[in-house]
Amino acid sequence: MPRPIQATIHTAALRHNLARARQAAPDAQVWAVVKANAYGHGIERAFEGLRGADGFALLDLAEAERVRALGWRGPILLLEGVFEARDLELCSRLHLWHTVHCDEQIDMLALHKTHEPHRVFLKMNSGMNRLGFAPQRFRSAWTRLNALPQVDEISLMTHFSDADSDKGITEQMGRFEEATCDLPGERSLSNSAATLRHAQDMAVKADWIRPGIAVYGSSPDFPEHSAADWDLQPAMSLNARIIAVQHLQAGDSVGYGSSFVAEGPTRIGVVACGYADGYPRLCPTGTPVLVDGLRGRTLGRVSMDMLTVDLTGLPDAGVSSHVTLWGRAANGTVLSIDEVAQAAGTVGYELMCALAQRVPVGVED
Ligand SMILES: *Cc1c(COP(=O)(O)O)cnc(C)c1O
């Protein structure tokens, strides 16, 4: 028998979450963001649940080829554009739309030989200060692009740094609006947080939204709102089984560093999941888990291949019981990946992206 651990990708949850994003911005088209191998879910595994999107957005040319190989003939957007001139050949061949965020990318386009002009998304740096043209340089970049025979339609885009928090998007929206108000072209502004929190705001209406994390069922602004608050369903579950049970007496410890010491008789379960599976080593004693669908907690340090859970108060649990590390248990109970991420001092994004190669992954509806 293989080691009893498995991740499951939930096609119906992806479909549901995509519909939620649409509902939040009903007039917009939706890029399903599938960078980083669909946030760790696997592009091929997530495709069925996401094929109702209007397009797929990603960074890596190899991932774009994989989306085309699945038979997708609709739009694909390279969120960082091309990295070198010959990437443009693949853009021409696979009909990829690409972001243009710097002068060097315009230089490459100007030298590119193509029969079919490219659809490009011109990116403004409205305050994130990673990629894009500064507002005062945006118009000249647009004018230069617009004069190129290699360029077809130019869309306008920016990315928000604080859509998930109180700071919000007002300042960045103001800069974007001011610098683009008389430029033609479709607009793409909102990630998940901006879509869920701000897309109802008339000023933020845009033609293309770019939800990522919400589509995978994690809340973009946890703990202010949980995934359940946003009516999002987990698209990934990580389940493993208990492979041993130990009985501790007061003063006994468990695991490396003896970080947990029992105060009294304690029954613990040893679970076939560790940090080499992508479960964060930083999760301390008390991190929530589901044992046969009932809420429990971890004890002691997470090791490479195992972690331990408290079975006190769970008398029916024992060897071969199912432990849900995040996602959905067989009885339908959900443990949000955001709660586990918070215990580890990180975000759901990182956990889903870090699911390890050695974990077998299944797909169900
Ligand atoms: C990753 C990314 C997104 C999606 O962000 P989420 O927070 O996951 O919704 C949107 N736009 C750009 C440019 C991105 O790089």
Structure in words:
With 365 residues, the chain is α/β, with parallel strands linked by helices. It is 26% helix and 25% strand. The strands form three sheets. Strands 8-7-6-5-4-3-2-9 form an eight-stranded parallel beta sheet. A six-stranded antiparallel β-barrel has the order 10-13-16-15-14-17. Strands 11-12 form a two-stranded antiparallel sheet. Helix 7 packs across helix 8. The longest helix is centred in the N-terminal third of the chain and has 14 residues. 48% of the residues are buried. Bound molecules: pyridoxal-5'-phosphate. Pyridoxal-5'-phosphate binds next to helix 9.
Q: Gyration radius, to the nearest Å?
A: 23 Å
Q: Structural class, judged by helices and strands?
A: alpha/beta
Q: How many angstroms separate the termini?
A: 25 Å
Summarize the amount of helix as a percent range: 25-40%
Stretches where pLDDT falls below 50 for ≥5 residues? Answer: none
The H/E string reads EHEHHEHEHEHEHEHEHEEEEEEEEEEHHE
Across the major sheet, the strand order is 8-7-6-5-4-3-2-9
Discrete helix count? 11
Coarse shape: elongated
Give a quick rundown of the structure.
The chain has 365 residues and is α/β, with parallel strands linked by helices. It has helices at 11-24, 35-39, 43-50, 61-69, 87-94, 103-111, 135-146, 170-180, 192-198, 337-343, 348-353, and strands spanning 5-10, 29-33, 55-58, 76-78, 97-100, 118-124, 151-158, 187-188, 208-209, 236-248, 253-254, 260-261, 266-271, 288-291, 294-299, 307-310, 322-328, 334-335, 361-364.
